[in-house]
Specification:
By secondary structure, this protein is mainly alpha-helical. 76% of the residues lie in helices and 0% in strands.
Length: 63
């Protein structure tokens, strides 16, 4: 399984827990290639933007 798909699957599975979501998102941002980040950011915002907008904003600002 490609890393991008694995990161998406993990985030989906841990999205019930705010701290776990934040931890896994930060890990995913370290693992992914720079050319994958734009797609990943768009996917995260459309999937979790209403649930965790502050976490996403903060994480992608650092990425």
């Amino acid at each position: 399984m490609p890393m991008l798909e694995m990161c998406k699957e993990i985030l989906t599975k841990v999205s019930f827990d705010r701290l776990l979501f934040q931890k896994e998102l930060n890990k995913a941002l370290k693992w992914l290639q720079s050319e994958e980040l734009d797609y990943f950011r768009d996917w995260c915002l459309s999937t979790f933007g209403k649930t965790y907008p502050d976490i996403l904003r903060s994480a992608f600002k650092r990425a």
